Predict the 3D structure of the following.
Amino acid sequence: MLAALLCAASGTALAQDVEPKDGGTAIFAVSNNPAHLNGAISTNPEIQRTAMALLEGLTYVGGDMQPKPELAESWDISDDGKTYTFHLRQNVTWHDGTPFTSADVKFAIEQLAPLKSTGKALQEMIEAVETPDDHTVVVNLKQPFPSILVIMSDDSVPILPAHLYEGTNISDNPHNLAPVGTGPFKFASMTPGAQVELERNEDYWGGRPHLERLIFTVVPDAGSRLTSYQSGGVDYLFGSFVDLGMVSQFGAVPDTEVNAARNLPANMVLIFNTERKPFDDKLVRQALFQGLDRELMVAAAYDGQAQVSASIIPRALQPFYSAETDYSEIYPFSTEAARQALEAAGAADLTVNISFRPDLASAPQIADVMKSNWEQMGVTVNLRPEELAVWRETVFTKKDFDVTLLSYGSYGDPVLGIQRVYVCVADDPQMTYTNPSGYCNPEVDAMFFDAATRSSPADRAIPYAEVQKVLADDLPSVPLADNSKLDVGNSARLGGLDEFFQSWDFSVLWAR
């Protein structure tokens, strides 16, 4: 079904396009009220996707999952892979009129990247950052680190204006609520719980945007997002806000175009709280995992647009996925075998609370299957749906949960979307989406570090194969399904969709 939708959608708008029109508004739906709009310190999709119209990185990741020039117009890499020289675009200004310079980039690398899970991996690799002039940044690394070009993208390390953030508490800076960026749109207003409105940046370095306004409207319920799209109240949804179980209904709307999101491949992950008994015992985790019917989950939650996960690295993330590890072979689904294993582990009278976000696409359906499966094993199960702010505090601040569900995109590189689920981290409530299980294994950390610092993908695959074996036994967090994320837009309402799918450059869109 996925292939059919993508084939049917691809290229339909290009043949019909006329000259882009000037003016108009595009409406995007998000699932939650964004707590702020600083994409440099959060991986929450409602923050990130809105902020990408305002903030930019040195690079962006294209539809082919390769880094492309954004605020850096080019770069040079030394023969030993340890020095990256970025040549910045000239005549770029911040929304307040201040010139963008290398000082802003140095500030982002040294002070912003460590604040976010997808950027933190860069911190331990940095030897020094030099700024020989206003338009050149030289990054000296301790080890080769080919992922730097992806990490410096607008998704992971968007650049903030140093003149407004340096010397402040970045997480509490008032500009988080009214960002000043270099992007094609400028902040206009925010109505909490309702919408964020952006206005055209007339002086955008990439050319004056066609649209006059962008509105990101908050629609918490997946069914309501579908209804709004069907009625014309919403023009576009990023994959994070599209319930895959409903994607065929989106596709049934005339002029709908569907495209695989750029942070693919993704997976839905079951998180055990390894700092709480009895989930600190891997035998208990293994028993609970074996008692899950993941084929039923895929059928119930994804409308055929996912497959049961075989390992921590999705099969589609080649060459890093190792066929030597297959959860279905190691832990074949069996209620009776799982019940016996749980009894042998001394946890026969177990009660499990499943904390999850009902707004997270597919999570409610998967939680229902988990409850049914585990109750058949004799486990008492309580479902605990929690809205985003409460869930985030429960899981990352208070650590007051048994198991939870999270969807992770890979961003095309295990360093960004996968490593952060498993590596040891110091307690930091702000570092959401990083190692929620509390698992810490120095051997695993060393394997991830080794893989990150090898130059070729084939060489990197060797330690990744080893880490997949270890984590298949320890099971601190377990991918349940390798799933697609599909962006959905309507070409009868928006022009430029084909180009937007490849770049997420809001300046190319125009209202028909």
Notes: Residues 7-15 have pLDDT under 50 and may be disordered.
